[in-house]
Amino acid sequence: MEEDQEAVNLAADWADISQGLRKDLGHQVHSQWIRPIQPGNYCKETGTLDLYLPTEFSANWVNDRFADRLSLAWKIARPDVRHVRILVHPGRRQLPELRLGGGGRPSSAPANDSAQGSSDPLSAALAGESFASLGQGPAGIDASQTFASFVTGTANVLAFNAAQRMAATEKPQFSPLYLKAATGQGKTHLLHAIGHAYLANHPHARIFYCSAERFMVEFVQALRQNQMIEFKARLRGFDLLLVDDIQFIIGKASAQEELLYTIDALLAEGKRLVFAADRAPQALDGVEPRLLSRLSMGLVADILPADIELRRSILENRLQRFASIEVPADVIEFLARTINRNVRELVGGLNKLIAYAQLTGQEVSLQLAEEQLTDILSANRRRITIDEIQRTVCQFYRIDRTEMSSKRRARAVVRPRQVAMYLAKVLTPRSYPEIGRKFGGRDHSTVIHAVRLIEELRTRDADMDGDVRSLLRQLES
């Protein structure tokens, strides 16, 4: 029990440290090298903490460049940590480096890498072994990021269905598939899911997963070491090519040319290609027209920002992992409504809230969420004014704007006014007295009564709940 609690404490501390390093190092470096780190054994007597990475390559890279930074961050978070060791995860299997075999095709496969998409691109394929034999999956594919764990809605159903087709046994109707989405909307999850499902359907297939930045690093290294023939042979020996954050390859003429030839070679052999980026192919600056045409010749599938229904579904799905934790419905509604920039922040907010509740022994509540998620909430809140709420409500119910401040008590006027007061409390940081002043100088008790009444009506009146949901969508869009 004590060991389990210590593991929870380490995980919670690492979540905070990792978030801070992401701000310092940037998303790309963090995603590539920091995010795959897992806290391991901790010896209280010596104050030594082990941090695990999936391969020797990544462990050496992080140890050379970030050891001091990681050590300092842990000492600040936990003064009892005096030493930090960066090691290869003891459960990871080490495979030999890739070497060229007969016919210019890979004859053996390299080690697997991170389960979070930070794989060494030269450690990508596993020929001749079944996917099920490896716990984390080859090529750095995260076995937890599957199609089954991907929550769908109107915002992402096209991309989801297209990704499933790409991983299916039968030949896809389109290739390459280009997934376009803003940060944190699920495109990397779909890349992992494609790799996972494809290897399940083709156990002996060779796949290549990397970010565009890692592609650039390996390309430059091969160029400097006169190993371009080997580099090209490795690339063109794969059955499935998955490249994330393709926008980072812009402006690199020689790398673009090599990627162009690789795409042509793989397509000519009927291989499958998937790219992901935060913008459409036509919006990529500095990309050679020929490469641009290859990227957009298949299917460009958008993943739109998750609407509130999808955000609710994602939170409810995530809660299934925390069966022992009770999260009230009003907290889920609050998170889904407030954290609307991207799915990653939404899930991160829920994880942080639950971790804090577990570590402090408090119950999850709306007040706790507001207190502990202030940074996330403030970054996501759009400044909605009471004037904007009144104007939207009046248009919705087709009443004159002056009725918001009038003394009339006709039901056709009172109910919209109460709805506007409720929305003002939900969507703005204004106090009850401040809201009352914006509604003709009404007393704060009137506002409290209106808020409680609308909350009650929403639970038993489907029409009222539908009206409020519609107004919330309008105001938050």
TrEMBL record:
SMART domains: AAA, Bac_DnaA_C. It is found in: Cytoplasm. Residues 385-454 form the Chromosomal replication initiator DnaA C-terminal domain. It comes from the Bacteria. CDD domains: AAA, Bac_DnaA_C. ATP binds at G184, G186, K187, T188. Residues 1-108 are annotated as: Domain I, interacts with DnaA modulators. Plays an essential role in the initiation and regulation of chromosomal replication. ATP-DnaA binds to the origin of replication (oriC) to initiate formation of the DNA replication initiation complex once per cell cycle. Binds the DnaA box (a 9 base pair repeat at the origin) and separates the double-stranded (ds)DNA. Forms a right-handed helical filament on oriC DNA; dsDNA binds to the exterior of the filament while single-stranded (ss)DNA is stabiized in the filament's interior. PANTHER family: CHROMOSOMAL REPLICATION INITIATOR PROTEIN DNAA. Belongs to the DnaA family. Domain I is involved in oligomerization and binding regulators, domain II is flexibile and of varying length in different bacteria, domain III forms the AAA+ region, while domain IV binds dsDNA. HAMAP family: DnaA_bact. Oligomerizes as a right-handed, spiral filament on DNA at oriC. This is Chromosomal replication initiator protein DnaA.
